[in-house]
User: Fold this.
Amino acid sequence: MIARPGPVLYALSESDLRARYGRGRIRLVKWLLDPFALVGVYLILISFLVNRPGPAPGLSLACAVIPFQLLMSSIISALTAVNRRKAIILNMRFRRELIPAAAVATEVVAFAASLILLVVMMAVYRVAPTVYALWLPVAIAVTIALSLACAYPACLLGIWFPDLRNFVISFVRAIFFISPALIALDRIHGTARTLVKLNPLSGVFESYRSALLYGHTPAAWELLYPLAWAIGLAIVFGLIFRIEQRQLAKVLE
Amino acid sequence: MSASVRAEAVGIRFLFDRHQRFVTPAIARLRKGVTEVWGVRGVDLALEPGRAIALIGPSGAGKTTLLRTIAGVLDPDEGRIAVEGRIGALLSVEAALTPALTGRENGNLLTALAGFPRRGTDGILEEIKRRSGLGPAFERPVGSYSQGMYARLGLAAVQQAEPTVLLLDEVHEALDHEYRLVLEEFAGAIVGRGGIVVAAGQDHELLARFCHEAILFENGSVRLAGPFEDVRRVSDA
Assistant:
């Protein structure tokens, strides 16, 4: 008997969350403080100490750093996900193709707490929410889809080339820096703008800014282009993972 | 109780690169100097209900690989295997337990992976706690457990799943005297109800208590199969 995917995904993520945040009331405090420790200090530094051009620079940066944090932590978690599940993989049959998905589900819970930072930054810069903030759930859904799609190649890389884990992390960081993360897209011109728009993260970051900072509907490309990347990656690497998951127990022996 | 295990010419292949690291077949195609080692090859097996079989042989002979193949952890690279029945497996001392989680949390995870519905889990977990005899330690992370405690918790979780095919790999050797008796009784009950027990280990005295037949493995192949004492005599020679 193989358990249904929903309960398995839930159980795997729940176990990850318990291992990460512990037990009892303190886990709620840890969950809320985690994003502040990760990126909150950096955002506050930018907002209050560094004089940067553009409207609400701290909020603009938060619109990039926070979704990127989900992508990055999903990839880091997926790189080692198979090793973390070693005891189970070597002992019983279950839906191993859910391992990367469970890693992302765990990170999504952590990511939910970091959304508070967006509210904090809006308050700091006195940016009132508009009706266009209703696009935020769509932007979040695209971020999750892209993170999920990236988790499968990350998990495979962790299996195939475990020595390259640090390189993969540096590579993803580099992709962040060649996106409109630190400088908003409307301040980039010419060929550089065209090239930066090819980065799927550009659309994600700009969609958060459209919804929360600029107060208008995100352009179609901002949502559809990263979504197309997510679908493409999911199809290709999802299929490869389905084949390679047969080898997981051998990798771990 | 319906249970059977049938293997036809089963082979499990491991591929290694120049640095003797395992590589998957997909990556092996891209690399030079890949060598292959068969964990087991050409293994035929037909286990009928009500049988308890010991797998014996030196370390690296293929016993664990075969048990993992029966458990569905490894998929055959050659041949085919068909298992009928509910599998309960203790294939390592860690027994599928995650060190960072408590006994209860591990029980929760394993029951979900085994397909138990979430409703009613509390009762199942209390039963696992009682069977494991861990007392307050059940609420502690299992990373703080001794090997014997790991094995007891693993055994209790497997008992709760009520398997018809029980697979054991040296885990029973980590159990103390009291829980070895529990395991023997449990294995006997499964066989008595028409289930199947397959156990591998180096403690032949212990295996002899609940296995009537044995298979001697050498270099990934079956060298001899038959009544336990006959096979053991050849193995010890």
About this structure: Residues 4-236 of chain B form a domain with the Rossmann fold fold (CATH 3.40.50.300).
